[in-house]
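I'd like us to work through together how a protein chain folds, taking it slowly. We need material for that, and I hope you will provide a protein of your own picking. Go ahead whenever you are ready, and we will take it from there:
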Amino acid sequence: MDRREFLRAAALGASALSMPPLFAQDAKVGFEELTREQIDAIDRGLRWLAKNQYSTGGIGSTCQVAFTGLAGLAFLANNSTPYRGTYAKNVRDALKFILRNTSKQGYINEAAGRGLGGSGMHGHGYATWFLAELYGMCGDTAELGDEGVKERLQKAVKIIAESQDPNGGWTYEPQPYGHEGSVTVTQVQALRSARNAGIAVEKKVIEKGLDYIKKSTHSDGTIAYSLGSRGSGGTYALTAAGMCVFSLYGAYDAPEVKRGMNALMEFLTGRRGRGGHHDYYAHLYAGQACFFAKSKDPAFWTKGYATIRQELLAAQERETGCWSQDGYGGAFGTACATLVLQIPYRYLPIFQD
């Protein structure tokens, strides 16, 4: 059975694959990847997302494409698909919402401008990531009717390619000029996920995107807000995002990545002040970077991820299950937190070792 067949079997309801092992350990390093507290927090968070999903399938009072894409990923990460699992209906409704908000050209947006309730290219990137992971998990199963998903995913990838600035970055709207680091990261990750799922992605588009992030790296390993704004040190959030993307593409040995992962660990261990905000955005990417880079140094996982987990568990509202300190009523924080805490489940194709 190859990997795609394995994932398809899981999606179609193989009962032996329906639940992750409790208190799983990484045998190589003796690290407890899943704790009872962590599992309980995940369950509370997912229940909050499910309870707060509208009848339209959307989640959040604003930027619904972005938050629904991320929440959909969190449901998928729990091994739910549109037709099986605890959150099957939630995945199905999220998918319908994303498809309903996809234009004929392929842009995924709420038909509202950024700052007016629209998610912009951030949301397009998260929604594309959701579609790619869903397609990667479910393949060509007729029950999903995923020819429509595949077609929308291909168009979404095309929008990303056509919106790339000549210097390799992306900006807030689908236009081929302008660039900013956090948007660039969402697009490059979405492209990686789509390529994993078998969708054709031009190599030069990815290479230019990676080169943009590399050129935005300070000498101390931190990542600048945008190419050309290298006068001050980079933030924890953008450094985490950049290191996640580098790790996704296996660029562990590049000097920028070695310095960047060291800087990321300094942020996590308190040796470097984080400042600013966007903690849930930062943890979303830092958690992935620590997971992907653990093959180079187990401490990224056993110390870096453990720190992120501890902070997330401490920040959850235990009664509601929500991570509400995100500035968006909990939709963004809860989606990010539950997604990061479920990395050890390894159900998402992109989270495969």
Residues 11 and 138 are 6 Å apart (CA to CA). Confidence is low (pLDDT under 50) at residues 1-19. Residues 235-315 form one domain.
